[in-house]
Amino acid sequence: MIKVGIVGYGNLGRGVCLAVDKAEDFECVGVFTRRQPETVKPITGYKVYSVNDLPKFKGEIDVLILCGGSATDLPATTAGYIKDFNTVDSFDTHAKIPEYFEKLDKIAKENGKIGLISVGWDPGVFSLARLLFGSVLPDGKDYTFWGKGVSQGHSDAIRRIKGVKNAIQYTVPKEDALTRVRNGENPELSVREKHARECFVVAEEGADRTRIEKEIKEMPNYFSDYDTTVHFISEEELKANHGKLAHGGVVIRSGKTTDENSELLQLSLKLDSNPEFTGSVLTAYARAVYRLYKKGETGVKTVFDIPLKYLYPLDPEQAFKTLL
Amino acid sequence: MIKVGIVGYGNLGRGVCLAVDKAEDFECVGVFTRRQPETVKPITGYKVYSVNDLPKFKGEIDVLILCGGSATDLPATTAGYIKDFNTVDSFDTHAKIPEYFEKLDKIAKENGKIGLISVGWDPGVFSLARLLFGSVLPDGKDYTFWGKGVSQGHSDAIRRIKGVKNAIQYTVPKEDALTRVRNGENPELSVREKHARECFVVAEEGADRTRIEKEIKEMPNYFSDYDTTVHFISEEELKANHGKLAHGGVVIRSGKTTDENSELLQLSLKLDSNPEFTGSVLTAYARAVYRLYKKGETGVKTVFDIPLKYLYPLDPEQAFKTLL
Predict the structure, then answer these.
(1) How far apart are CA B152 and CA A135, in angstroms?
(2) What is d(CA B177, CA B320) in angstroms, rounded to the nearest whole number?
């Protein structure tokens, strides 16, 4: 049995609990929280401890699955965990991955541990598609479209605007762009041409809606480069119609093998629950961390380093007999 | 530079030549043929030698890319090549892979070589999808659909019927089955419900077309379990409209993360040229064989054993900085 600890119990931690519960080769030692342990009730009934108690579990846990956020939580805490434990996380700030990698790699190697970073669907499954597709079709171009789905970062950005009580933002791929890419046109697409942004906003009573809408649409990086629509709705409507955590997306690469012939590869996801799927991916990769650690490997790794057989729930050396 | 030899110059050998020509880190030592070398003219202008001269190139070639067929050619010849060379092949008789693996593994290990088997799109890219999807969504079911595209094996089977001059057979996935799978229904599908078979046949003058059609439709394994349509056409029409080697297909897995939530994963290919794409995949994996051999690995391997970073044309340890 692979003994795991789950750090954090938000949407993602809940998703990991569900995935660990489905995996017959896993045993959960406990969920570790920064909150009062008695206030956290994992859906799977796992024991809950304070993160401060983690050092006591050194040697008792094969892999820690880190379910904190990428903005502040993981950068501040992973280095500490990796001194005592193998870890897997979903760090998803693409631009900061090299820096995060360097910092952790040194600590992981010094302490003889594995830290597998940036696991999930993007980065993660989509990254594997980009690498595989690009390697087998070098004379081509790839495109990643996200959505339709909620972007937590963009929803948070709207919530920080004065007069906004609550908000949900959907990233929506543009059909016209998808069609052109799927036709193998390999178009140059601006940010605006690839995705639209649709915002559902609950304004505080008496707030200036015209100003709020203007502030959203003109917000640099987040919205100003996109076609953005803003709908003001009630808190009740938001709760009733926008509580789902569905998401999805597609990686598409079209490449030429000769001047006459093009080949088109696509990997797509349609998710009812973004955090439940991400939790499933983290769990499968925790299995790989366990196996690689048993083989004596150490240091920081990404999905690009891991032979896929190590994700297989049964004997990895036999996977080729049924799945190849 | 990675020095490769290409064994065989049929459709697949031609595809490999084109892919090697596009790869800046590859150098082709030569194409090796069983025909008279002077009768073979590779599209890329590579030198041509007799396969009998291969032993002279021992130590001069990093990887041999084997482009023979799976029915008789690869089973008869790979063991001989692997004594002197690292190899990559596209052995695709799924049921016989374990036997092929065992036989070659011993020889590869004894001679300190790597033999990477069953590389292409199925087995190959589609196998990776089945393994990845199954591991991250264990509570689900996967489906592989092939086509629309020409099946060489089925076309050959028709050509062996008395009175048939030429024939092309298309495997066609059934839209209704695809729709049900994409809706996440996880249906039980019979062979007949998944694919149809469409045959274009050139009959010899005076041949009994009714008998030919009956023999096709009743042929066990190949056609009797399928909805099969037979069209008799002229040799000119066959050449004009059925000379393309287009193919494609999709691996779909739908799985539950909870009773309420399903996640749907799909990997699809749409190929103008099946052999050119397969040649590109073989070439990318030849790069991986070269790199793993440099690291001291030996024995028979499949795509499940290879970290995807080793396919990357540039520094594999840096791939995560741009593609993750």
Answers:
(1) 27
(2) 38
Residue whose C-alpha is closest to residue B284's, from A139, A74, A85: A139
Tens of pLDDT along chain B (324 residues) come to 999 999 999 999 999 999 999 999 999 999 999 999 999 999 999 999 999 999 999 999 999 999 998 888 999 999 999 999 999 999 998 889 999 999 999 999 999 999 999 999 999 999 999 999 999 999 999 999 999 999 888 998 999 999 999 999 999 999 999 999 999 999 999 999 999 999 999 999 999 999 999 999 999 989 999 999 999 999 999 999 998 889 999 999 999 999 999 999 999 999 999 999 999 999 999 999 999 999 999 999 999 999 999 999 999 999 999 999
Query: Cα(A15)–Cα(A9) distance, rounded to whole angstroms?
Result: 9
Residue A305: list chain B partners with CB under 8 A: 307, 309
- Amino acid of residue B65: I
Q: What's CA B159's distance to the chain center, in Å?
A: 22
- Name chain B contacts of A265, Cβ cutoff 8 Å: 125, 267-269
Task: State how far the alpha carbon of B287 is from the alpha carbons of A62, A93, A134, A255, B313, in Å.
Answer: 34, 30, 14, 19, 8
Amino acid at the residue A191? V
B215 CA: distance to closest CA in chain A (Å): 32
Q: Which residue has the tokens 């694919």?
A: B195
Contact B265 A260 (CB under 8 A): no
Whether A72 shows a pLDDT value over 90: the answer reads no
Give the span between the Cα atoms of A32 and A17, in whole angstroms.
12
- C-alpha span between B200 and B242 (Å, rounded): 8
Tell me the chain B residues in contact with residue A18 when contact means C-beta distances shorter than 8 Å: 257-258
Alpha helix (H) ranges present in B142-208?
152-159, 175-182, 191-194
Residues of chain A contacting B129 with CB distance shorter than 8 Å: 267
Say yes or no for a CB contact (<8 Å) between A257 and B266.
no
Test A311 with B135 for CB contact under 8 angstroms.
yes
Best probe of the A interface among B90, B133, B136, by most A CBs < 10 A, is B136
Phi first, then psi, for residue B238 (nearest 5°) are -60, -45
Quote the minimal CA–CA distance from B209 to chain A in Å: 35
- Contact assignment for A22 to B271 by CB distance below 8 Å: no
pLDDT of residue B203: 98
- Report cis status (omega within 30 of 0) of the bond before B313: no
CA terminus-to-terminus distance, chain A: 26
Q: DSSP 3-state assignment of A266?
A: strand
Q: Could you tell me the two tokens for A229?
A: 């629509």
- What tens digit of pLDDT does each residue of A259-285 get? 999 999 999 999 999 999 999 999 999
SS3 label, residue B145: strand
**Is this complex's ipTM strictly greater than 0.85?**
yes
Residue of A nearest to B245 (CA): A261
